[in-house]
Amino acid sequence: MKKIQSLFLVGLFAISPLFAQQVEVTGNVSDKNSGKPLADVEIILKNSGLGTITNSSGFFAIQIDKQAEATLIFNHLGYESIQKTITPQDQLTPIEIH
């Protein structure tokens, strides 16, 4: 049993630096025609299974890899899905969907 616990702790410490390699990107999603913020827009980080949704003000925040570009997919009922490639330097990214 001690071997398993030791391996688990070593594995945990080996993985933890990976999480430090992330940066939070934030933005707002609005209707392209009216300019009004959109709540409950689904935002998926492509090829990862990770995602979030916008709040009532259209605001979102998502963690991406600090070293690479990422493609976000925006979905909302009644709107076209769009994909946007972002970098870790992109902050408060405005997204308009129609």
Task: Write structural notes for this entry.
The protein has 98 residues and is of the alpha+beta class. The chain contains one helix and seven strands, in the order H-E-E-E-E-E-E-E. The strands form two sheets. The chain has a four-stranded antiparallel β-sheet with strand order 3-2-5-6, with no helix packed on it. A three-stranded mixed β-sheet has the order 4-1-7, with no helix packed on it. A hairpin with a 4-residue loop joins strand 2 and strand 3. The N and C termini lie far apart (57 Å). 13% of the residues are buried.
Topology at a glance:
Blueprint: H1 2-19, E1 22-31, E2 42-45, E3 50-53, E4 59-65, E5 70-75, E6 82-86, E7 93-97
Parallel strand pairs: 1-7
Antiparallel strand pairs: 1-4, 2-3, 2-5, 5-6
Features:
7 strands; 18% helix; four-stranded antiparallel beta sheet; 98 residues; 1 helix; alpha+beta
Morphology call: globular
Number of strands: 7
Structural class label: alpha+beta
Distance between the termini: 57 Å
What is Rg?
Answer: 17 Å
Beta-strand percent range: 35-45%
Low-confidence stretches: 1-16
**Major beta sheet summary:** 4 strands, antiparallel
Determine the fraction of residues in helical runs and give it as a percent range.
Answer: 10-25%
Instruction: Give helix and strand order, one letter per element, not per position.
Output: HEEEEEEE
Number of helices: 1
Q: Outline of this structure?
A:
This protein is α+β, with helices and mostly antiparallel strands and 98 residues long. 18% of the residues lie in helices and 42% in strands.
